[in-house]
Design goal:
- The chain is mainly alpha-helical.
- It has one domain (about 5-70): Helix Hairpins (Orthogonal Bundle), CATH 1.10.287.
- It is built from 4 helices and no strands.
- It has helices spanning about 5, 10-35, 40-60, 65-70.
- α2 packs antiparallel against α3 (about 40-60).
């Protein structure tokens, strides 16, 4: 999901999405250990997505998102 799409979500939606992608990331890591991973690039994509969502949650925590929406 793109950053601008994530910015449109509420904090609760972001937390739910983060939980889902973390579960998927864990499952893929387990599959990699069993050497049954069809698309290894997906791990990298998920790790970046997790970081992106955590960044937005932290911005929300620091009230930076409100400042960005308000324009100053």
């Amino acid at each position: 999901m793109r950053s601008y799409e994530l910015r449109q979500k509420t904090r609760e939606e972001l937390e739910r999405y983060l939980e889902d992608i973390q579960k998927e990331y864990f499952n893929l890591r387990m599959r990699r250990a069993a050497q049954e991973l069809p698309n290894p690039k997906r791990l990298t994509m998920l790790r970046r997505e997790i970081a992106r969502v955590k960044t937005l949650l932290r911005e929300d925590e620091l009230k930076i998102r409100e400042l960005l929406k308000g324009g100053g």
